[in-house]
Design brief:
mainly alpha
């Protein structure tokens, strides 16, 4: 690989890293409402519920069962978020692997502009993934019964 091609590849690699950071940042931003619901609403309810479990009239098994019962909503919500996040990541990874495979095939065939095709493919994959985030967040909100307050219209 000549110096120009190597420099071009480094530049494209940095651009690709920026695109992946963009999808990460967007995912974190959009999922923040769901994460806040789990951290504050569900965990607060868990601690209040679990506090009530500690009664001197109960034996250890009863207390443990009560605490387990209280923790179920938090654990369920966390599992749903992890599952959806993992599916999202897997779809993005598969899409990026297709781009990588196309790039490798183009490189083997010495096609001109293979790196540009790679960059375009990755950009499209990232944009497509970002477009799915509102749907994923909507599904999580629905399954976790998250109701956001209406926006203040001044």
């Amino acid at each position: 690989m000549d110096d120009i091609a190597a420099a071009e590849e480094r530049i494209v690699t940095e651009r690709l890293r920026q695109k992946l950071n963009e999808v990460n940042t967007t995912a974190q931003t959009q999922l923040s409402v769901v994460q806040d619901h789990v951290k504050f609403t569900l965990q607060q309810a868990y601690f209040k519920c679990a506090y009530e479990c500690f009664d001197r009239r109960k034996n250890t098994d009863e207390i443990n069962n009560c605490v387990d019962y209280c923790s179920a909503p938090v654990l369920t919500a966390q599992n749903q978020i992890e599952d959806e996040t993992a599916k999202f990541q897997e779809r993005l990874n598969r899409s990026l692997m297709v781009c990588q495979d196309r790039y490798e095939a183009d490189k083997v065939q010495n096609k001109v502009g293979a790196i540009n095709v790679l960059e375009s493919c990755v950009d499209q994959s990232v944009q497509d993934s970002i477009k799915t985030l509102p749907h994923i967040v909507g599904q999580l909100k629905a399954s976790l019964s998250i109701i956001e307050p209406p926006a203040n219209n001044i």
